[in-house]
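In response to the reviewer comment on reproducibility (Comment 2.3), we provide here a single inverse folding case reported in full, input and output, so that an independent group could reproduce the run without further information from us. The structure tokens appear first.
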């Protein structure tokens, strides 16, 4: 058993180096945007609009990566897809390091975003297909754990490193992933779908240890594997369209909570709300996220997926409502809609007001991040890696990842416009409403997958 666990954990660790890489991509913008807004070089200096593009263009690349990932994950396999991701990661950082103007910064972010989209699709699929049911929830939650660890790593490194050197540091995780993935096998489910039974047996021997009943597990997987391709007409089948709709809705609600708006601009929000050490405040936020995501990974196979989604949704609904209240208190009437730039809006706070209620902002943001990390951060990625039938996994996962990153783009790019149109407090109250809707959706539509094999989950949807 110990040999089995060590080998399985090695495979999972190699795969989650991809999410660690895209955590660094997401976290990179928070310490870098304030630096580039004040840089002496006019060709690289960002104004408000350019800063929002720098933060959000990565999500456009990720959306494209979701489409590409949905194709290549079924063509070249899970393992090779993850290994190929290292190329656009490293290339994007090289472009950023050598950037001479804002457009090179955009292009570098777009390239790392492309890799992020592929990784966010492939890593959960790889981990779910190599894991056994008793630890699949924990290992699947490690995807989000490594994402938030990467975000925190970027925040911490951003305290001491200038933006070019921070890009150099961010290029290391994908290189290490490429090295480690070369030592682990392809998933047995993919190999059996390619009619490579002997290689699938060898992969199971690596993942389960030499004493497990490989032939039995191989037979269970083969029973659910359908070699024929996926036709468009098959999306009329409830066993395919129901999990797809659930997956797309989970991705929609994950972003509609406003998490990326908060995380992309965490440092800027703190800085312009007149917190003395905005970078350290961002590190604290990142640390909270890592701790509670780790807690979710530990308890998810005991509590189940739905319980964590309920608790998470309620906490986020409360915290975003409080955050809206904070902005309602500190901002004078009229200033909220006079300028759609979030930095201008935050600077228009009444002098001295924010200090008296700054505890409310800290508590609200801490609660929000903790709540998200406990459920709506890791669980949707885990669930979409579990619920799709093998032959529809690439297309369905691609649709979910595309939804996630397009929503992330909409939220991060239009965050300023939301503030201009709805006011700052109205924007956070809108996020709160979506958090409430996410709880209702979970109650009626999300299945509990705790302790079930992927084959049993497929059977569940075929019987509905």
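Designed residues, in position order:
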């Amino acid at each position: 058993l110990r040999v089995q666990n060590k080998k399985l954990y090695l495979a999972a660790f190699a795969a989650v180096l991809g999410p660690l890489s895209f955590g660094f991509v997401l976290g990179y913008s928070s310490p870098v945007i304030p630096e580039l807004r004040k840089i002496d070089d006019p060709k690289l200096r960002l104004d408000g609009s350019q800063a929002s593009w720098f933060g959000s263009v990565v999500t456009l690349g990720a959306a494209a990566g979701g489409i590409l990932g949905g194709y290549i994950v079924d063509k070249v396999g899970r393992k090779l897809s993850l290994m190929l991701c290292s190329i656009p990661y490293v290339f994007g950082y090289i472009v950023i390091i050598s950037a001479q103007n804002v457009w090179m910064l955009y292009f570098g972010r777009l390239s790392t975003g492309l890799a992020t989209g592929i990784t966010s699709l492939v890593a959960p699929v790889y981990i779910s297909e190599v894991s056994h049911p008793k630890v699949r929830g924990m290992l699947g939650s490690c995807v989000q754990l490594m994402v938030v660890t990467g975000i925190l790593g970027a925040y911490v490194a951003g305290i001491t490193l200038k933006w070019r050197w921070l890009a150099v540091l961010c290029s290391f995780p994908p290189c290490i992933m490429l090295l480690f993935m070369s030592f682990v096998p392809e998933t047995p489910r993919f190999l059996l779908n390619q009619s490579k039974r002997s290689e699938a047996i060898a992969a199971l021997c690596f993942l389960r240890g030499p004493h497990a009943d490989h032939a039995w597990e191989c037979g269970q997987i083969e029973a659910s594997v359908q070699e024929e391709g996926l036709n468009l007409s098959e999306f009329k089948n409830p066993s395919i369209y129901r999990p797809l709709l659930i997956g797309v809705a989970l991705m929609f609600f994950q972003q509609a909570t406003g998490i990326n708006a908060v995380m992309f601009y965490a440092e800027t929000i703190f800085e312009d709300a007149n917190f003395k050490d905005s970078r350290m405040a961002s590190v604290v936020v990142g640390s909270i996220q890592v701790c509670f995501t780790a807690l979710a990974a530990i308890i998810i196979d005991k509590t189940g997926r739905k319980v964590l989604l309920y608790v998470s949704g309620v906490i986020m609904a409360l915290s975003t409502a409080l955050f809206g209240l904070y902005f309602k208190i500190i901002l004078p009437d009229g200033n909220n809609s006079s300028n759609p730039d979030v930095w201008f809006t935050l600077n228009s706070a009444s002098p001295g007001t924010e200090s008296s209620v700054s505890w409310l902002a800290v508590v609200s943001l801490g609660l929000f991040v903790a709540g998200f990390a406990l459920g709506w951060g890791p669980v949707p990625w885990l669930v979409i890696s579990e619920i799709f039938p093998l032959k529809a996994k690439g297309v369905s996962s691609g649709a979910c990842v595309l939804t996630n990153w397009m929503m992330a783009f909409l939220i991060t790019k239009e965050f300023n416009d939301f503030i201009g149109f709805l006011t700052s407090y109205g924007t956070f109250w809108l996020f709160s409403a979506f958090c409430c809707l996410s709880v209702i959706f979970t109650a009626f539509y999300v299945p509990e997958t705790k302790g079930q094999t992927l084959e049993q989950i497929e059977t569940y949807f075929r019987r509905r």
